[in-house]
Amino acid sequence: VFSKIARAVAGKSKVDDEVLDNLEEVLITSDVGVETTLNIIKRIEERVAKDKYVNTQELNKILREEIAALLTENNTVDSDDFTVPEGKKPYVIMVVGVNGVGKTTTIGKLAYQFKKAGKTVYLGAADTFRAAAVEQLDIWGERVGVPVIKQKMGSDPASVAFDTLSSAVANNADVVIIDTAGRLHN
């Protein structure tokens, strides 16, 4: 995002409406939500108005500060509260998304948090198509100390999910997290 911003403001000496429009476009095309983007732009406009003159070199610093402030303000979740809904066990989370967004890493972090909260966690390596996907999940399983249910490369992902759930039920696990192959979803 920040390299795109640098290109968008190249040649500009101060933050004006054109720079803010370019910044808004960069944020939205970088998958920052529209509401969040507009909030960031509003906050930057207020700072520019208050400081009277802000050059484009300061924009990255201001942007980082405003994003950090937004994240801090909106962080109302108790990160120690990793409870699962009451009811039938295990609680199943299937993680989906496009390639390269950090699904497997997020699964490792979720598994760590659930385990830290005293939950028994099973991971399912249902991304059977991406080279090294199973190995990546295995590494997270080892780091966190939770079992990873897997099959060979190219196996049916649904059968991996089924095996994971079966193992979790047999062992009275609290949480199952299934890693999936990244695909564009329509």
What does this entry show, briefly?
It is a peripheral membrane protein. The protein is α/β, with parallel strands linked by helices.
Walkthrough of the structure:
Its main location: membrane. GO terms for molecular function: GTP binding; GTPase activity; signal recognition particle binding. Residues 1-71 form the Signal recognition particle SRP54 helical bundle domain. It holds the Pfam family SRP54_N. This is Signal recognition particle-docking protein FtsY. The protein has 186 residues and is α/β, with parallel strands linked by helices. The chain has 2 domains: 1-73, SRP54, nucleotide-binding domain (Four Helix Bundle (Hemerythrin (Met), subunit A), Up-down Bundle), CATH 1.20.120.140; 91-180, 3-Layer(aba) Sandwich (Rossmann fold). The protein is built from 7 helices and 4 strands. Strands 1-4-2-3 form a 4-stranded parallel β-sheet, sandwiched between helices. Strand 2, helix 6 (133-144) and strand 3 form a beta-alpha-beta unit. Helix 5 (103-116) packs parallel to helix 6. The longest helix is centred in the first third of the chain and has 18 residues, at 34-51. The protein is elongated. The mean pLDDT is 86.
